[in-house]
Design a protein that fits this description.
CATH topology of chain A: MetI-like fold
CATH architecture of the largest domain in chain B: 3-Layer(aba) Sandwich
Distance between the termini of chain A: 25 Å
Low-confidence stretches of chain A: 1-31
CATH superfamily of chain A: MetI-like
CATH class of chain A: Mainly Alpha
Largest interface: A-B, 96 and 96 residues
Largest sheet of chain A: 2 strands, antiparallel
Mean pLDDT of chain B: 86
Mean pLDDT of chain A: 84
Structural class of chain A: mainly alpha
Radius of gyration of chain B: 30 Å
Shape of chain B: globular
Main location (chain A): membrane
Largest sheet of chain B: 7 strands, mixed
Low-confidence stretches of chain B: 1-51, 580-599, 619-625
Oligomer: heterodimer
Number of domains of chain B: 2
Protein name (chain A): ABC transporter permease
Strand content of chain A: under 5%
Order of helices and strands of chain A: HHHHHHHHEEHHHHHH
Distance between the termini of chain B: 23 Å
Number of strands of chain A: 2
Keywords (chain A): Cell membrane, Membrane, Transmembrane, Transmembrane helix, Transport
Subcellular location (chain A): Cell membrane
Number of domains of chain A: 1
Structural class of chain B: alpha+beta
Radius of gyration of chain A: 25 Å
Helix content of chain B: 25-40%
CATH class of the largest domain in chain B: Alpha Beta
Family (chain A): Belongs to the binding-protein-dependent transport system permease family.
Number of helices of chain B: 17
Shape of chain A: flat
Number of strands of chain B: 23
Helix content of chain A: over 70%
């Protein structure tokens, strides 16, 4: 998140040393003056709502993946010489021979204690598999998230402020084009151009993976960064457009406001008007979008992780679905949903601090 | 009045901060590509390592993840292939013709009553921790499979007919059977070191992936593993058959096949196989590539059309809704007679397959069977129409109508993920349509549910065949039928026939290889005539490797066979590294470093220059205000 989108952005109207407070919204009282009790009640309601949502996710995840018409045991052993006794034994070990209600109650009971069972195909606790793959996903999508959010806000502000100019038209068209490009296709294209190399362009980046497997120490860090370049570029290229467009449209709405005219009439520099008056108020929709996207950072990007063979959660989820490895997909679904719910709850909790009209 | 703020040159400080931050991030990422020590261009681990230590590494691109490194749990092809490299088996298969040859056992023989097999265990095989591999290790491994349900997950099927396994001496292993079993030289069970594995508590949860190197006695020792990234194996210099020529084999995960092909083109990997084959487009694109050899060998799979012969349980209870018309052998044969297999090979497989006939693919020459001239059901739509007429399905307008007045409409199960199924489905629709048969192609992500429920008429079917055909023959016996309706079972498509079952039992009890092969051929002949399983094609194994990294490699069968997924360790054990200083290095590796550094320097200079100009313009603009 950029410095401009911190809670200080509302307070700064009072603290503005360049001139008197702007006339524009929000017109409510500042956070310090808020009724703390009402705010805490609001926060408590949001937390309770999140807890209810999480429980609903827990229950639905059990039934959702059982709708997939498949026999996990047969899928896993597919093509191998396996006797009928072995199939029965595996089914028994996985608990698939138990009645559905029994499977459900033990699943919910275990899940409430943080135990999502043992993966059918990897013979390891689901939470171990998730914690194993989570750092790779956070590193990739987290880096991309920071970059595309910053780039989107910056370019969105720039294009709106220069609305109608050549650079506005170019940037908006480019963003819309990249936004429409399938990420796996762009990833493959980048591999062909920058990994394999075309014409005078040398192959400078690895075709996939998180590391070469040969480096240690600081060289390892550089090696991982080297492997991150193309997947991050892919994610940023297809991801920044959304923030750009939201920021642009939000700022364009603000740009017609009287308080900006007033600010300009006071003789403030154009940059000050934009940076200290227009952008803070235009940030709210972009802020919401950033929190929505933040929740999705954990889920990773299945297609990009696949194209670049990134060992993250997206790829793990795909492998889980192909069996289906019920404990694994249930656990992953719950973790993904939890991340989104937590990010949304966090946004809900922070929003009244940014926009006093909310939560009153 | 709303007044739009005019576009204006933006202002320095905030943008400067963002610009600097973005620039730093971008440069940081880019810089990583030009830092010494980080390989560029042909950044193959092999070459990187070769430069460091002179070691030779063969890198294989694989699409699968490892499910487990425990040979008691591993199910996937990659994991079982790795087990083959880590642990020796009692026997191996000859690369030339798949016949059983010595492995950990130097010889094996049955008793006169056919119920006891005695194996002589070699005395020159050592575990990588220095201990001797003995018959005791083999006996312990088999006993574990027989007594521990958790340990029997992957290979339990091999011991179901075992009565007792003992090791009277370090070089003698005795296996007593309940019934005679001809597959005793095809026990594909990795033998593990007892002194290491007896410390394992719960076999169903032990994945053998925590302490490296892992003690083994195969041609390679597993030295490192990172989930979903790579499996590293180093050459076992003390391997009794001789040390592998490459110092290291790395199986590197590429989840996307096109990315794997790009990695081969770049030289980042030495070998790429498809899953199960490279697509015709991938193979074609690699064919003209410098330093790349596309290898195409006879595949071990067959692609067939299966008919529903009437789903039933073991005790004869019928279920499912297969079309009754298919219970007539004439109808089944008519369907096969109207399939132009040559067109399917040319158009769908684009030449990367061989026309199907018998049930066992031709690469298994001992068991390969072809129909005689009079028996052959070659493409003949006129004869097909004749057979349908004889079966009572006459043409009424443009439709075949049965005696009950209902048109002959069929359904076929197709795998939605297999483009071949879909393409062939379209051809069948056209060919059978001309005969007056309606066809609905049901493409599903997972066909197993309607299949087990017997709710299909026809299905696209295919199996990978092992050197010993017992398993793929066994899935058509009455014993493989489900005990309950709709429950999954070992059966492939509910075939249950006394003639076939008698032949199956006979071949399993026949210890003379030639006589056994003859019985297996009789079974194929019966299956062909029945029309239950119509083999359309044997798809080829299409794969590619870099000739500047691999000088030579053994295929299986040795004359024009495949490399990946062999029965045995021949390919990776035999691979000879190409001479050092291969073209890949000089082509795009070190040579590109200077180019990249140059590009980065130019970009930095241009960006810096642009930034100064913009800053100057803005300052002027602000001053004007």
């Amino acid at each position: 998140m950029t410095a401009d989108s911190t809670p200080a952005l509302v307070r700064q109207a009072d603290a503005d040393t360049d001139g008197p407070a702007p006339a524009g919204p929000p017109a409510g009282r500042g956070p310090r003056a808020r009724n703390t009790k009402a705010y805490l009640k609001y926060v408590a309601a949001k937390i309770v709502g999140a807890a209810v949502s999480l429980f609903a996710v827990l229950v639905t995840s059990f039934f959702l993946f059982r709708l997939i018409p498949s026999d996990p045991v047969k899928q896993m052993t597919g093509g191998r010489p396996v006797s009928a006794q072995q199939l029965d034994s595996l089914r028994h070990q996985f608990g698939l021979d138990q009645p559905m209600w029994q499977q459900f109650t033990s699943y919910v009971g275990d899940a409430l204690t943080g135990d999502f069972g043992t993966s059918f195909q990897f013979h390891a606790p689901v939470m171990d598999k998730i914690t194993e793959a989570l750092p790779a996903t956070l590193l990739l999508t987290g880096t991309a998230y920071l970059l595309y959010s910053a780039l989107g806000i910056w370019l969105g502000t720039r294009t709106a402020w220069r609305n109608g100019s050549m650079s506005d038209r170019f940037n908006t068209a480019l963003a819309l084009t990249l936004y429409s490009v399938p990420s796996f296709w762009l990833g493959l294209l980048l591999i062909i151009v920058f990994s394999v190399g075309i014409g005078p362009i040398p192959g400078m980046f690895p075709t996939g993976g998180l590391e070469s497997g040969t480096e240690t120490g600081f060289a390892y860090v550089l090696d991982v960064a080297h492997h991150m370049v193309l997947p991050v570029i892919t994610l940023v290229a297809v991801g920044y457009a959304q923030t750009l467009l939201v920021m642009r449209s939000s700022l364009l709405d603000e740009m017609g406001s009287d308080y900006l005219t007033t600010a300009r009439a006071k003789g403030l520099r154009d940059d000050t008007v934009r940076r200290k008056h227009a952008v803070p108020n235009a940030m709210l929709p972009a802020f919401t979008l950033m929190f929505v996207n933040l929740g999705q950072v954990v889920a990773g990007q299945i297609l990009v992780e696949t194209v670049f063979s990134w060992p993250g959660l997206g790829g793990l989820f795909y492998q889980g679905l192909s069996v289906p490895d019920l404990p694994l997909v249930q656990g992953l679904f719950f973790v993904f949903a939890t991340a989104v719910i937590l990010a949304n709850t966090l946004a809900d909790v922070l929003y009244p601090l940014l926009d006093p009209r909310v939560g009153r | 009045m709303v007044e739009r703020v005019p576009p204006h040159a933006a202002q320095p400080r905030s943008r400067l901060r963002i610009l600097l931050a973005s620039g730093a991030a971008a440069l940081g990422l880019a810089a990583a590509s030009v830092v010494p020590g980080v390989p560029l261009g042909a950044a193959a681990p092999q070459q990187a390592q070769a430069a460091d230590s002179g070691r030779t590494t063969l890198t294989v691109a694989v699409a699968q993840s490892v499910d487990s490194l425990s040979p008691f749990l591993a199910q996937k092809l990659l994991s079982t292939s790795v087990s083959r490299l880590m642990y020796d088996f009692l026997t191996n298969y000859d690369a030339k013709d798949n016949h059983a040859i010595p492995g950990l056992a130097t010889k094996w023989e049955p008793s006169a009553d056919k119920l006891t097999w005695t194996y002589t265990i070699r005395s020159n095989s050592k575990w990588s921790d220095g201990q001797q591999a003995t018959a005791e290790d083999a006996a312990w491994t088999f006993n574990k499979l027989m007594t521990d349900e958790g340990a029997a997950q992957a290979n339990g099927n091999f011991v179901t007919n075992f009565k007792k396994v003992t090791a009277p001496s370090p070089t003698k292993l005795v296996i007593e059977l309940k019934e005679p079993q001809a597959t005793m030289a095809a026990l594909d069970v990795p033998i593990v070191p007892k002194h290491v594995w007896e410390k394992v508590g719960d076999f169903s949860k032990f994945n053998n992936d925590t302490k490296f190197p892992i003690v083994g006695n195969g041609p390679f020792i597993l030295s490192d593993y990172k989930v979903d990234q790579y499996v590293k194996l180093t050459a076992n210099k003390d391997f009794w058959r001789g040390s592998p020529k490459f110092d290291e084999v790395v199986f590197k995960t590429y989840k996307d096949q096109d990315a794997a092909v790009a990695a081969l083109r770049k030289g980042e990997v030495s070998f790429v196989a498809g899953s199960p084959a490279l697509t015709p487009a991938q193979a074609a694109s690699l064919k003209g590539e410098k330093n790349v050899k596309v290898n195409e060998g006879p595949g071990r799979r067959f692609f067939a059309l299966a008919t529903n012969p009437g789903a039933q349980t073991k005790d004869g209870k019928k279920f499912g809704n297969g079309n009754k018309a298919l219970l007539d052998q004439k109808v089944r044969q008519a369907l096969f007679l109207s399939i132009d297999r040559k067109t399917i090979i040319d158009k769908v497989f684009q030449g990367h397959a061989v026309e199907g006939q018998g049930y066992i693919p031709p690469r298994f020459s001992a068991y390969y069977w072809q129909p005689s001239g009079s028996q052959s059901l070659a493409y003949d739509p006129a004869k097909a129409a004749q057979l349908l007429d004889q079966a009572g399905y006459r043409l009424k307008g443009d439709q075949r109508v049965g005696k009950d007045g209902k048109p002959l409409d069929l359904r076929i199960l197709c795998h939605a993920t297999d483009p071949n199924d879909k393409a062939i489905g379209k051809y069948l629709k056209e060919w059978w349509g001309k005969l007056g048969i309606g066809l609905k192609v049901d493409c599903l992500d997972d066909v197993s549910v309607p299949w087990y429920a017997g709710e299909y008429d026809l299905a696209f079917d295919g199996w990978s065949v092992n050197p010993d055909p017992d398993f793929v023959l066994g899935i058509h016996t009455c014993a493989a039928l489900p005990t309950k309706a709709k429950a999954s079972a070992s059966t492939d498509n509910f075939i249950c026939d006394k003639t076939y079952d008698d032949l199956y039992k006979k071949q399993l009890a026949e210890y003379d290889p030639a006589k056994r092969a003859d019985i297996v051929k009789q079974m194929q002949s019966w299956m062909y005539d029945s029309g239950y399983m119509n083999v359309i094609a044997y798809p080829n194994a299409v794969e590619a490797y870099r000739t500047d990294q691999i000088k030579s490699i053994t295929t299986m069968p040795e004359a024009a066979g495949n490399i990946y997924g062999q029965d045995g360790y021949w390919s990776w054990w035999s691979a000879v590294p190409a001479g050092s200083g291969g073209d890949a290095d000089s082509d795009s590796g070190s040579g590109s470093t200077g180019v990249v550094i140059g590009i980065v320097v130019v970009v930095v200079v241009l960006a810096g220059g642009g930034f100064l100009v913009m800053r100057r313009r803005r300052t002027t603009s602000d001053d004007r205000e």
